[in-house]
Write a structure and sequence with these properties.
Number of strands: 2
Strand order of the largest sheet: 1-2
Order of helices and strands: HHEEHHHH
CATH class: Alpha Beta
CATH architecture: Alpha-Beta Complex
Oligomer: single chain
Number of helices: 6
Strand content: 5-15%
Shape: globular
Distance between the termini: 27 Å
Largest sheet: 2 strands, antiparallel
CATH topology: Sufe protein. Chain: A
Length: about 140
Amino acid sequence: MTIQERQAEIVDEFSFYDEWADKYAYIIENGKALALMNEDLKVEDNKLHGCQSQVWIHATLSNEGKVKFEADSDALIVKGLIALLVQVYDEQSPEDILNNEPTFINDIGMQQHLSPTRSNGLLAMVKQIKFYAMAFKAKLEA
């Protein structure tokens, strides 16, 4: 499934909910469904700075040239947000990650419903994902 298809799927899933309380509950459920991150990866190098809560993101490049993400957070909403980003970008090529912005964030109206600190944290998560993709793209081209 492409990044665009994954984003369309998320937008479609959110369309079932009219109230933002229900959408937040859905975000939290996504976080609870996120694969457990290996505790050995919760180190300073993988810790995201710019978030109010603790967030860890780790990425590896598969032999097929796809980026595999692992992530976690100590805050339920933030864990749900990173879970949505992982759902969109996991197992995609560095090039595809770099060429596709997370448009679903605006499409579902999330940007207007996040506090400024959560918005900054979400931006930091996207930047970190793009940074990994940029580094892996350079590695593949070397």
